[in-house]
């Protein structure tokens, strides 16, 4: 079909160039020639009356899509449908299969059918005016309700019309692509450049790789329906049938960070390597249907990365710090973990007290030689769960995760070198990169004709892919609840998604016509991830950069890129930022509430609560102050770097508070202060006590972990009132946030309902997504309730305190 498409394109271009004796090509926008052709098109669709709005407004045919918009042009559903069809046929007619669709012979005559057909601007506008890719959502991943659309060019895609100029000029595009890629290859890896690169490496990068037609597909004379337009754009030409069985081709266009053929490593992973030494936890995963080339694409990457990492490790600056490279390789199969380098030993996943995921029993190997890395990878690959599918004889049935971690070893631990496992555990992780070869994305959808085992695999794969997207979405939205627990895969990847993280998604696609639906699903999933990555990252990156800048400043005093305790620093920030409000959050909140009255006796529960970073955004700055204080207390004996980093964490969180809680009206604090003062007085009066001016320290002060000064501040009524005021603000901010979250959740629920009511929708997708949505809803509510209860308790406590004060 590629050749056929090119031919028809050339023919159409010729027609376009010569059409109408002067043609649209030469006609000025809005010229008589253009209007006449436009009118003929509209007439052909029985929409001649719509020609006048265009003509009278003096706009040209390129604004045809505007007729579809509400309140302008076509009004009835039938008219809209006709207009839509007309646009579609104009847009794709020249690319149709054996029986090109001709709108209506009676009116178009011999020439009009192709008039302006390939005007770059014209087609670009069609795409841009009609679709919002951001409206697409989770269900597209596995089951798609194909809606006839003229184009999927994102309205946010820059220079959409440019695509068509190179569209069928693969040689030029290819040369351009090679040139682009070569530039990146030649970049040297020196220190200065590393820093620049680190700043330039996007937090989420989405690239596509199209594999060539394979022997089977060539033997079946399958068409290659995917054209790569330059190194970022690609088009999928979907063969379709109209209801009257006329064949036509629908063209879908996408734009990604890169569309690759070769040089995958140089574009995706290589730029991340220097950042691994700067505390980055990176994830690179391949996504796509079975047989689309995920394993083929992923397999060389770890080895190349290891090569570069080992090279870096030989640099004196890292050698002097005893940095070493460690490798592990495991798979997730049917929701269970297996060590691929240890006779497929079953592994357990546990979370430690700081919500760090540990894979108990996973073997890690120190590697300093690339040849050894190669052997480990081969050994692991041989142990993977594979099976045969229609599309791939050696199909991966599991998610395989290969991790390369750079760790810093302390000299003290040298004595334990003989014990491999201990050494790996005792060393601090500086940064790591995880390579994930995901199981085929469509397996979950093909449940009907598979056996029970394959169906179970499919359900698990589905769950993990949805969970993966949910996590990316939640992270991107700065959501309080990141649903890491949605699947084993996301649980395992938890630390790769928080803090200084980088994610590369390689979407692998098959080029053959019979894979079209899966290819579109893959590209839509990728597009969704890409669009997610655009919204909030610059903001978050700024925050992260400021933290990393602080860390850099501190570490620069010792002139080392990463100083001892890098992991700790990272972890602390992660914990403040990772705000999982799942089951244990509720438990913790409840236990906090239950024990709040007795915190004198259990100061640690409060401080660990604060330190664990379980607080959501919106927590009062009073709490922040306490948090900062507690953090400093906990790490009172830490190096100054740690303390600095800790306070930076608090600043980080504080910024978030301001974001969810808009600035309060000036003076409101004073007003409220009066309110509370009155309220405490009233409390005192109610107890029939006259002396309300006493400011003696209270014995009932609940903060025993604080300093004397703080105790004084907290125990004085003014200090208490200020603290309560701040908590009140935080409560209101949290309430506001909860409403925002609920609104977003309700929107998602409505969308889910609309989707499940479509004919042919997949109930299993609906169930999985609804379950996610409901747990988010519940977590959000419970969080607010706990905060409210805490605040009520605080008020009560304050009242008692004041009564005690006045009795003295
Ligand atoms: N870019 C490519 N160039 C040449 N051959 C390729 C390319 N990509 C994949 N192949 C070939 O296609 C076949 C399927 O590839 P691969 O096993 O990587 O698919 P997969 O997506 O991992 O499938 P599954 O999900 O079933 O494991 C293999 O024989 C592989 O060699």
UniProtKB/TrEMBL annotation:
Residues that bind ATP: 288-295
Protein name: Kinesin-like protein
Gene3D superfamilies, per database record: Kinesin motor domain
Main localization (coarse): cytoplasm
Residue ranges of the region described as Disordered: 534-573, 642-721
Record's keyword annotation contains Cytoplasm: yes
GO annotation (BP), single: microtubule-based movement
Superkingdom of the source species: Eukaryota
Domain Kinesin motor positions: 203-532
CC annotations in GO: microtubule
Species classification: Eukaryota, Viridiplantae, Streptophyta, Embryophyta, Tracheophyta
